[in-house]
Design goal:
By secondary structure, the chain is α+β, with helices and mostly antiparallel strands. The protein has three helices and six strands; from the N terminus they run βαβββααββ. It has helices at 18-22, 89-97, 103-128, and strands spanning 2-14, 28-45, 48-64, 69-79, 143-144, 150-151. The strands form two sheets. A four-stranded antiparallel beta sheet has the order 1-4-3-2. A hairpin with a 4-residue loop joins strand 3 and strand 4.
């Protein structure tokens, strides 16, 4: 489980004027998560110290095709395996360093990065005049079809 999450640096840039950005209907948004530099560190806890796997990350949201801007986060996350986990902290670190991180650990860290940075990215994208950094749901209420019958339009299929 993630016991500590930090954002240590935020960088954002816009490469186009707001009027120009608004004329683009489809902008490709690329999400790039780079998790690196794992280390075992000691953290203080209410009932004594504990060892955790600290990993550094860089998470970038790139607005491409056309290239109109980016939002970039750097920081670290501390992971501690749950009781009874199949691998020790040292084994997780060794696998991580060899490029074979356990998928469940890697997924938890990556999802934590997204969950913690996405709300900040949404606010930044709005303030910068960029399209939303995270896809927003498309809500369609009931509509009448040609026969006059009410039908429900799916949130995902228009």
């Amino acid at each position: 489980m993630i016991i500590r999450f930090r954002i240590t640096q935020v960088e954002s840039k816009v490469f186009a004027e707001e009027d120009e950005i608004q004329k683009y209907k489809n902008v490709n948004i690329n999400y790039d998560i780079n998790i690196k530099n794992s280390s075992i560190v000691e953290r203080k806890a209410p009932f004594g110290g504990m060892q955790v796997l600290q990993v550094e990350y860089v998470m970038a949201i790139n607005y491409l095709s056309p290239n109109i801007g980016h939002i970039r986060f750097e920081g670290s996350a501390d992971y501690r395996p749950p009781d009874g986990f199949k691998l020790t902290l040292q084994e997780i670190k060794e696998k991580w360093d060899s490029g074979a991180a356990p998928p469940e650990v890697q997924n938890e860290v990556a999802n934590s990065i997204m969950h913690n940075t996405a709300p900040v990215a949404m606010i930044l994208s709005q303030r910068l005049g960029l399209p939303p950094a995270v896809p927003l749901p498309n809500i369609n209420f009931q509509a009448k079809n040609d026969a006059g019958k009410t039908e429900f339009k799916s949130y995902y299929h228009g």
